[in-house]
Specification:
This protein is an all-alpha fold. The chain is 94% helix and 0% strand. It has one helix and no strands. It has one helix spanning 3-62.
């Protein structure tokens, strides 16, 4: 194993450990907020869809 390979492996292991620590740190609060964020996202998608449809209807009504 060359020095470059060792350095690259060390770098990726370091990156992975940072990601793992971040996931571990956020997962506790993430699981708590998961359903809430899911419902929020669904509401946001629905409102986006309906506002888009309303704008589309308005455009077609006034675009004789």
């Amino acid at each position: 194993m060359s020095l470059r390979n060792i350095a690259v492996n060390h770098h990726w292991n370091f990156q992975f450990s940072i990601c793992h620590a971040y996931v571990k740190f956020t997962s506790k609060s993430y699981i708590g907020h998961w359903r809430l964020s899911l419902t929020k996202r669904r509401i946001r998608l629905v409102t986006l869809f309906f506002s888009y449809r309303i704008l589309w209807w308005i455009q077609h009504i006034f675009d004789f």
